[in-house]
Description:
With 431 residues, the chain is of the alpha/beta class. The protein contains 13 helices and 12 strands. Helices cover 39% and strands 13% of the residues. The chain starts with a helix and ends with a helix. The site of pyridoxal-5'-phosphate has 12 residues, from helix 5.
Amino acid sequence: MNLKSIYGNFVCDEVFEYGERILKGLKGRFECIDEIAEYNQQKVLKAMQDAHVGEASLGGTSGYGYNDIGRDAVELTYAKAFGTEDALVRPQIICGTHALTVALSGNLRPGDELLYISGMPYDTLHEVIGIREARGSLADYGVSFDCAELTDDGHFDYEAIKNKIKPNTRLIGIQRSRGYSTRPTLSVEEIGDVIDYVKRLKPDVKVMVDNCYGEFTETIEPSQRGADMIVGSLIKNPGGGLAPVGGYIAGTKECVENASYRLSAPGLGKELGPTLGLNKNFLQGFFLAPTVTAGAEKGAIFAAAVYEKLGYSVNPSSDAPRYDIIQAVTFNDPDAVIAFCRGIQAAAPVDSYVVPEPWDMPGYDDPVIMAAGAFVSGSSIELSADGPMRAPYTVYFQGGLTFYHAKMGILMSLQRLCDAGIVDKSRLCSL
Ligand SMILES: *Cc1c(COP(=O)(O)O)cnc(C)c1O
């Protein structure tokens, strides 16, 4: 079989062969990822069987959505897989930011303080919390905010956390993934240890983990190490590429119930919410999520190895432990960020002919260039890349429903860098 001939439709021989040499060195690493995926596959299977998922669970409801047995099966499946008492998994939750907003506003009251202990939260939460002034923010409703930065090497600063916990600190927020920063992603173990610590300091404090991009990268989730709530988006890892919308909040009965009164209305809570025929997508996507996440993770490692060898700063490095599917590559050059994203776009199954440009996205401080040719608009478990147009010009790459597609995206990004004269193609042969 001649792989090179099919790749010849997309990239030059030098780029293809460089990629093959890189891949040879990643075999052992990929085996470890496959093992985690295998464990998680059986974990999800067990959860579905224990939740009694049946053919009748695959249907849906409309209108009020009373007695939606499929919805109950979806939520029970999430709760069982993530080791929580309950879960809210709904198509009415539009995205991760929305899920986090529902979780926060449902569990905080005027006078309470929200303390983030993993440094400043993800950009889109700044308006939600009111760090950046915004109408309807938590600050508008009398909820204050404080933040303990991570240490310089990216770990929890126990001393700073201790000093920031006040009598009115009601909820502690931890962001597992790096988001748009180059700090390391936090492991479940590290998160678990800090949860033990804050609960010793203040036993009644609740801990919420922003779990976006972290699901299924390890064999347990932060909810299994003491988090009261874990929150994420279904157009990232747990939707497996098949959920067309949605978000989840999994956690204690109390936290999930509090959130449910915000998602629907006080008094209504979880009892309402039509699933509009999406239960099957949610269940099937969750079933595939462990292997889809593994493919995306392999793509991220491949990207790290490809750009590391070319001398770029990558985060995490190709041999570092990984707890999410995001790969940051720092180019120190806006043109390289643009070329990279255009290569990812050109590798897409949908909209491959579109040329991405930087734009002022709602919720973000700087213009952002985004590459996404996805079946689900905005899905970042599908192959995608984005780079805020600010120094040091770092691009964040993630997703790929299959490893082979992620591989193609990376090779095409490199091809575009060669075409733009940023990387010297003839150099590839000697690496
Ligand atoms: C993606 C993400 C979010 C939410 O983003 P949405 O685009 O609203 O889904 C929040 N936190 C982190 C760490 C994320 O990666």
